[in-house]
């Protein structure tokens, strides 16, 4: 609540490891809002929240120097970054099991990186050119991405705009939303792929 923050030091709500980082940022020079710093703070429920802070010095009516701090919640963005890194790590582990890739990595690192990049580009090209609607989500069932066909289906301008959103924010039919949740939860809990299912959607 606002009353809990008034009179309290900003540093008191920061994650202990980030306090020095925040102090360095504030001392470094905050004459404009051009610079920012990513840090972690605690919510009222003692949950860790990733935020981006910008700060600027100003002088009040009594000529006292003060600092205006703007805080932006970037927790969803950080969660997506972690998921993407984990996906890349899994992809690299898979490629490391292929003898040809292991050979390239050991004797020709540049060729290995080129092969890895080509694989990403090929996968992206396939996703964007097949007629199916493709989406991918994290384990909390928030969107991590989609192809152009799905973006057009739900009438969003760019596939990137779907990142971090949920079905509740994008779909109108409550039954469809509930069905999606149940089916996705089954896959997550069983860790098994489901093939050849037909669905009728109301958008």
Description:
46% of the residues lie in helices and 17% in strands. β4 (135-137) and β5 (143-146) form a beta hairpin. The chain has three domains: 2-73, PAS domain (Beta-Lactamase), CATH 3.30.450.20; 75-129; 131-190. It has 203 residues and is α+β, with helices and mostly antiparallel strands. The protein has a three-stranded antiparallel sheet with strand order 1-2-3, sandwiched between helices. It is elongated. The protein has eight helices and five strands. α4 crosses α5. It comes from marine sediment metagenome. Residues 35-86 form the PAC domain. This is PAC domain-containing protein.
Please give the share of residues in helix: 40-55%
Number of helices: 8
Dominant shape: elongated
Question: How would you name the CATH homologous superfamily of the largest domain?
Answer: PAS domain
Summary keywords:
elongated; 8 helices; Beta-Lactamase; 5 strands; alpha+beta; 17% strand; 203 residues; PAC domain-containing protein; single chain; two-stranded antiparallel sheet
